[in-house]
């Protein structure tokens, strides 16, 4: 039975072209730096986001934590939005791996940090306080929103005044660029390091990229090895990554159009309230009170109809469109929801 999987854009399947490229990939030993397919991916990935160098890592969480570990020394503090992925969904890793603490700030309606609040949060030179080591931003944001380039630019200006680096969790950065109508380099110009995923919406089965200056990436390679990220004949995975950055980044507008259509149609159904502030990319957040249908029942009945969804988080459901969800699939989902709660 074929399922329509709306749980996340991480559930995408590699394309036939990716599978063929993986099977035929020329490989070497990545630790010796002689895997030609990996070397090509890292070169092209860096060029894609306008950075000097890049490194392939197993996951987005690995990539974010590698950047924190590389930028900071133990005992430092990181300024970050309180609802960013690094805070909410990375298992407390900053304390475990980099040995840093997080100074979390409120974010705006689109997930943006207030530059004035960021500047106020930077620690003074006082032996009683931790030193600020890094500012972290996110785009696109975990809640389905996109932060303006202007806001990121203001954060970068604050960082430069205080001689601090900026790391961008850009797991879905190509979605952000598509939503903003800008080249991705306009976003990455506002950070010193960036992580982006190849397996979120881009179809690759595994992997993320960390990009930055040549000096930063060389330093990160040693930390990568320490974290167990030496992956040997990884060109098999890099082959899919090349197709992800060359081709799959160019079709994200389709996923966005499908999510906007899904949001519009769900909002027309009695009992459902769609959060219109969180539909910038391929995500639809909505409230469906348990007085209409209980959470467990809704998830199970959707599954019985061939649709995989997650339960609520913070009182909201989230449906995510991606390359394996067609407009016809979206229409079927809408009809099914109407049937279940009508």
From TrEMBL:
Any one annotated GO CC term: cytosol
Positions of modified residues (N6-(pyridoxal phosphate)lysine): 200
GO biological process, one term: L-threonine catabolic process
Aromatic amino acid beta-eliminating lyase/threonine aldolase domain boundaries: 5-285
Cofactor: pyridoxal 5'-phosphate
Domain of life the protein comes from: Bacteria
GO function terms (MF aspect): L-allo-threonine aldolase activity
EC number: 4.1.2.48
Keywords recorded for this protein, A-Z: Lyase, Pyridoxal phosphate
Coiled coil, from the record: none
Alphabetized PANTHER family for the sequence: L-THREONINE ALDOLASE, L-THREONINE ALDOLASE-RELATED
Family to which the UniProt record says this protein belongs: Belongs to the threonine aldolase family.
NCBIfam families (alphabetical): GntG_guanitoxin (NF041359), PRK10534.1 (NF007825)
Listed name of the protein: Low-specificity L-threonine aldolase
Taxonomic source organism: Peptacetobacter hominis
């Amino acid at each position: 039975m074929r399922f329509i999987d709306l749980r996340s854009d991480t559930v995408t399947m590699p394309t036939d072209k990716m599978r063929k490229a993986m099977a035929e990939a020329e490989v070497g030993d990545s630790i010796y730096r002689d895997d030609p397919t990996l070397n090509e991916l890292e070169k092209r990935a860096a060029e894609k986001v306008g950075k000097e160098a890049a490194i392939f890592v197993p996951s987005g969480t690995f990539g974010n934590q590698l950047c924190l570990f590389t930028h900071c020394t133990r005992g430092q503090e990181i300024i970050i939005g309180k609802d960013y992925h690094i805070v909410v969904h990375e298992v407390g890793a900053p304390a475990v791996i980099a040995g840093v603490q997080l100074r979390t700030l409120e974010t705006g309606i689109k997930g943006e940090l207030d530059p004035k609040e960021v500047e106020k949060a930077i620690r003074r030179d006082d032996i009683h306080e931790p030193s600020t080591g890094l500012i972290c931003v996110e785009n696109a944001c975990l809640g389905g929103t996109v932060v303006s380039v202007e806001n990121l630019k203001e954060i970068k200006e604050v960082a430069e005044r205080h001689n601090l680096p900026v790391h961008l969790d850009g797991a879905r950065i190509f979605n952000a660029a598509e939503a903003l109508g800008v080249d991705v380099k306009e976003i990455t110009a506002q950070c010193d390091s960036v992580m982006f995923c190849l397996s979120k919406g881009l179809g690759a089965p595994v992997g993320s990229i960390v990009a930055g200056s040549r000096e930063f990436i060389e330093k990160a390679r040693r930390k990568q090895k320490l974290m167990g990220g030496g992956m040997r004949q990884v060109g098999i995975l890099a082959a899919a990554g090349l197709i992800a950055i060359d081709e799959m980044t160019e079709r994200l507008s389709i996923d966005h159009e499908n999510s906007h259509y899904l949001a519009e149609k769900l909002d027309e159904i009695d009992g459902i309230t769609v959060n219109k502030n969180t539909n910038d990319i391929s995500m639809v957040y909505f409230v469906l009170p348990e007085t209409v249908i209980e959470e467990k029942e809704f998830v199970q009945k959707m599954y019985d109809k061939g649709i995989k969804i997650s339960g609520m988080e913070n009182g909201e459901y989230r449906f995510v469109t991606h390359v394996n969800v067609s407009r016809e699939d979206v229409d079927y989902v809408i009809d099914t929801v109407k049937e279940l709660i009508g």
